[in-house]
Specification:
Chain lengths: ~425, ~270
């Protein structure tokens, strides 16, 4: 889809030049006609502005999908530190690249300033190579700057797939890049497969899909099958973008697993010089405030002790904290308690909170709304403690205790050392 | 000053249940509500209107004709006028196509100073439409806004953007797109007089077709959407677990811990 100016109809009025948001229309002083340059994003603003109907969109030249190769992972870094989700997605991107073809590579896309050894670090986490885009204006994340340099890089290097972490940064950036590139984007994916057989295996394990409905699908079509929850986790959908490239997904932190870091792993480092000016960036960061409260690392926790509405009040989290301290766990919470102001949102587990998969998840006084389940059902063992024997949480728990958590938990705390092998 | 608020009518997903026999969503009887984050977006606009009667709050939405009910709620909360883009031609739009359609609607409505949207809708949870409208309208954006201030001349906005471990303070000139989260404010209730006014037949709720807003039909609707649903299904139900038995709490605890030990979990 390219925008073209019919030179016969163009009267040289320059209205389109003024209205183009991307400076993508030049005015040729000799012919007195407007022409489209390479900055055009096919946004079509000029088409409606032209009083002489001289501008149109050439729909005939379909995007050549085969020109798009390799997988990029937006390897988010903050203050020079690679985010955990970047490591997880590098492992995921590497796996998918092998499933596409032996020639397909997984690159870590690093955007920032003075990225130093991060390119090498990404390779050690499993990337075949790193693409570094560095500029003083990219020091801290800003929507305009990051969107521009990534869209420019996409145009030039044409990746087939881009994965982003569904963080507060990834979810700000990815829709903007997809909007400008006019491609599909699937948010908060929990399953990604390119290979049809592997997709079938995933569906057989995780879903109720009747696999016979997949029989007519082309096993050679390596489009990315992006599975995500909808309707608060009540429904799952697999989304594909067959017509546009690159295909883009965001993935929640904690959903994929990172691989072992291989110190000294070799890979290609590609440096891209971005074209960026101060005027490109319309927001100004005045200050970045780290909140004094300790970081809750729910995603890395081996044991999570979570409290829900059944606690009855904010003071209930004292018991949960005591429990977590005893078992070496981290305090989690259902959304209800966060909404009620009993505990900070950084503790929230679930669809709109953190996705977790600890070795043991203790759900204490949590009824188990589907939104909560969406964030914790992949825990290795789930223990539910609830007064209500009909609470949905018992439907997904491995072990349940029907009883008063204020009586049960102190006993577990007392008995813990008699059973635990950990010193 | 005119503020545009983007709102969506959504099913209350906390009320959505699965039919255990057919594994299908039971939609009957599920109430439709104003999307929670959008209520925060509307509230922030109304707070500006409370301070300055010259502020106009215009709510825009896209959806089936019954989305008017949600817009009545917006009027009853205090919005000045509502526009609903309702047309089969825009049905089935993904986020990219939706943003094209809503952009056409906003452009048709005319000049504005600011757009407030909710961060995300609870039915899809994508958080994509706000930023994509901003992209199509060439506006700067700030997402996850948890605190908002505006200069007296309405030219400059200072906001707190929530991060996972804190927040950023960001300045941006108007017009801009801000997507709001629940930490921003507490949405007001509808007033009785507001409900009475909003339910009148001449209440300022305007339903527009794709033709009315002159949207490019090649960029909206199911066909134009770059993403398509390949398959949809319900998650696999987990095998039922075990209820721990015991005479008293101590025995229950011991039996539980014995099980966990058996599994080498502790």
């Amino acid at each position: 889809m390219a925008v073209v100016i019919n030179q016969e109809l163009c009267k040289g009025c320059k209205i389109c030049v003024k209205n183009c948001p991307f400076q993508a229309i030049d005015f040729d002083e000799t012919t007195r006609k407007a022409t489209i340059n390479e900055k055009c994003t096919a946004c079509s603003v000029c088409i409606s502005k032209c009083p002489f109907k001289a501008i149109s969109k050439d729909e005939s030249d379909e995007v050549d999908l085969s020109a798009y190769k390799h997988i990029w992972v937006f390897a988010e870094q903050r203050d020079g530190e690679l985010m955990g989700v970047a490591k997880e997605l590098i492992a995921c991107g590497r796996r998918l690249s092998r499933d596409i073809s032996p020639e397909t590579k997984c690159y870590a896309l690093l955007v920032g300033n003075n990225l130093g050894a991060l390119g090498q670090e990404a390779i050690e986490w499993g990337a075949d190579g790193s693409i570094l885009i560095e500029h003083p204006l990219l020091e801290h994340f800003n929507t305009d700057g990051y969107t521009k340099v990534i869209c420019d890089a996409i145009q030039e290097m044409k990746p087939e797939i881009i994965l982003y972490g569904a963080t507060h940064i990834g979810r700000d950036l990815a829709p903007r890049v997809a909007g400008r590139s006019n491609v599909g984007l699937t948010a908060d994916c929990t399953g990604l497969e390119v290979d049809l057989e592997k997709y079938k295996a995933y569906c057989a394990k995780e879903t109720t899909l009747d696999l016979s409905t997949l029989e007519g699908e082309d096993p050679n079509d390596k489009c990315i099958k992006q599975t995500r929850p909808a309707f608060g986790g009540n429904l799952m959908a697999t989304i594909v973008s067959k017509k546009t490239r690159p295909q883009m997904s965001t993935v929640r932190p904690g959903v994929m697993s990172k691989q072992e870091r291989v110190p000294g792993a070799q890979g290609e480092i590609i440096k891209v010089t971005p074209k960026l000016e101060e005027s490109d960036i319309r927001t100004k960061i005045i200050k970045i405030v780290k909140e004094a409260k300790e970081m809750v690392s729910l995603t890395d926790a081996k044991i999570i002790c979570s409290g829900g509405r059944g606690l009855g009040g904010p003071e209930g989290f004292k018991l949960i904290e005591e429990f977590a301290n005893k078992v070496g766990g981290v305090v989690g919470s259902s959304r209800a308690c966060v909404d009620a102001g009993w505990i900070g949102h950084e503790h929230q587990v679930g669809q709109t909170g953190t996705t977790v998969k600890p070795d043991i998840y203790f759900a204490c006084g949590i009824s188990g709304a589907i939104q909560h389940q969406a964030g914790m059902k992949n825990s290795k063992l789930i223990v539910a403690i609830n007064k209500d024997p009909d609470a949905p949480i018992f439907g997904i728990a491995d072990y349940g205790i029907v009883g008063d958590l204020y009586k049960v938990i102190p006993m577990i705390i007392e008995e813990w050392d008699n059973f635990s092998t950990a010193l | 000053m005119r503020i545009i608020v983007c709102a969506k009518q959504v099913p209350d997903t906390s009320e959505v249940k699965i039919d255990p026999k057919t594994n299908r969503i039971i939609r009957d009887g599920v109430p439709s509500i104003l999307n929670p984050d959008d209520a925060n977006a509307l509230e922030e606009a109304l707070l500006l209107k409370d301070k300055d009667p010259n502020v106009t709050v215009t709510v825009v939405s896209m959806g089936p004709p019954q989305a008017k009910d949600m817009l009545i709620e917006c009027l009853a909360m205090g919005a000045d006028e509502c526009y609903l883009l309702s047309d089969r031609a825009v049905g089935g739009s993904d986020t990219w196509a939706t943003s094209n359609a809503i952009t056409a609607l906003i452009e048709k409505i005319g000049p504005f100073d600011m757009i407030f949207a909710g961060r995300q809708a609870i039915d899809g949870d994508t958080a994509q439409v706000g930023p994509q409208i901003a992209e199509k309208m060439h506006l700067p954006q700030v997402t996850y806004v948890q605190k908002f201030e505006i200069s007296e001349d309405y030219k400059k906005v200072t906001v707190q953007r929530q991060l996972e471990d804190g927040y950023e303070i960001i300045e941006v000139a108007t017009p801009c797109m801000l997507t709001c989260i629940k930490e921003l404010n507490n949405p007001r209730y509808m007033t009785v007089s507001g409900i009475v006014k909003a339910c009148k037949p001449d209440a300022p709720i305007y339903v527009k077709s794709a033709k009315d807003v002159e949207c490019d039909l090649s960029k909206v609707g199911l066909e134009a959407s770059p993403t398509v649903v390949f398959r949809s299904f319900t998650p696999a139900p987990k095998a039922p677990g075990q209820i721990i038995k015991g005479e008293d709490e101590r025995e229950l605890s011991k039996n539980l811990l014995a099980k966990l030990k058996e599994k080498h979990a502790i």
